[in-house]
Structure formats: C-alpha cells, structure tokens
Amino acid sequence: MAGFVLIHGSWHGGWCFDPVAEILRARGHTVVAPTLPGMGGTAEEMAAVTLDGWGEFAAQHCRDLKARGVGPVVLAGHSRGGLVVSTAAERDPSAMDAIVYICAMMLPSGMSRAGFKELEGPNPAFDAIISKVHGGIATVIDTQNAAPVFAQISPPDLVEAAMARLVAEPHAPRSQQIKVTPERWGSLPRTYVECTLDRTIPIESQRRMIAMSPGANVVTLEADHSPYLSKPQELAEALEAAIPA
Q1: I need a labelling partner for 62 at 20 to 30 A (CA). Which of 96, 125, 184, 226 fits?
Q2: Rounded to two decimals, what is the model's pTM?
Q3: 34: part of which helix (H) or strand (E)?
C-alpha cells in the first residue's frame, strides 16, 4: 500500500480532500492532507509565508511517511498546490516517489503563478470573486459567488460546506518564480489530472501547462475545479494509478 500527501489549493485547507482520503484509506493506503502554514492567519503570519517554506513543509510530510515505513509515497497538489509540489520535488526528490498535479499549476522553471496569469489573460468570473486584504499581503474569496466558479457540478451540500470554510490566502507564493531541473524534479514520474469543466484554471490553460512541461502522464476527468467533490472516485483512481510499479 502507498502513502499519499495531498496539498490543497488557494483559500482551502486539507479538509477539502476528505472524500478522496476516505476512499484511499478504505483501500488500505495512508493519506496525509495537511493545511499549509499561515492559511487564514494574521497579517504577520501570512506575510511570513514563502513558497520555499511550503515546499519544505510538504517534503517533510513525505519524509515522515517514509520514516514510518510507508511507501511508495505520492505527493499531489491541487490548483495552487502544484507550485508547492514542484518546489518540494525540486528541494528533495528522494522524499517522494511520484508527483501528481490536479488541475494544478505545473509551471516551467523561471515562471511564477502571476506570470502565467498574464499569459492566460482575463478570467472575469474568477477575477471578480478575489479581493486583496492586509494591503495585498493576502487575498480572500467572495464565498457567496464562488460556487459557480469553483464547483459548479459538485454536490450542492458539499459545496456549501466547503465555501463556508474558505480562508485568506497568503499572496507571496504566487509571485515567486518556480525553479525546477531535469535532474531533480524531472527525475520523478509525473501525472497531470486535467479537469475539462474547470472554470478557475480553464482546460486550455491546463493543456498549455502540460505542453510547456512535457513528460507527464495525462488523466482526463469531466470535472469542475473541485474534482475531490465532483468526482472523488475517479480522482482516487487517478491517484492510485500514479503509484510507481
């Protein structure tokens, strides 16, 4: 059986993976879905957040699983969590055995999330629900209008509960350029789970990233930006398929 470290996306917490984690645990796997440090914290706490710090946080969770004899270890990230996965994999590729991007930011070296946003162009529905707080240190979501952008085909009761739990997101990691090398990040098997109905990171943007960083095994889900709610069974299967033989 494998170990999974699941890294959530912006404004969310590790709780968002609960439906998928339940499926994987029922199949005998070990699942860790932590909430990243600083999420929803004070202005000072969020100002202290760095992408490098988040990457080390994720890598340490992978190392902890291996220290317990759990393995192989798969590190997966959703949405902005892809930045964390890339950073962790470059920092310590020996800590994990495979990496997975779930409609996530899989960027080439030298590019930031903010930089890719400029390539994407406007996404009016998504842009309209984001507001800066603490002088731009963080952003928050208009939870009353987020559901059609984040989870339009997911079960309404699960969506309502999820939207109520969204918190402020530290902004700095979005501006930091990714550094990945073939020798480290590129040494790991990669899977990209693309979600064709995504309104947050549209499928065109996902496929652009796949083309910019070739080499990933691509799994296609007819899902919104919250596949852990809309297609948990299929997502669990995609994560299991990423376990190295």
Answers
A1: 226
A2: 0.97
A3: none
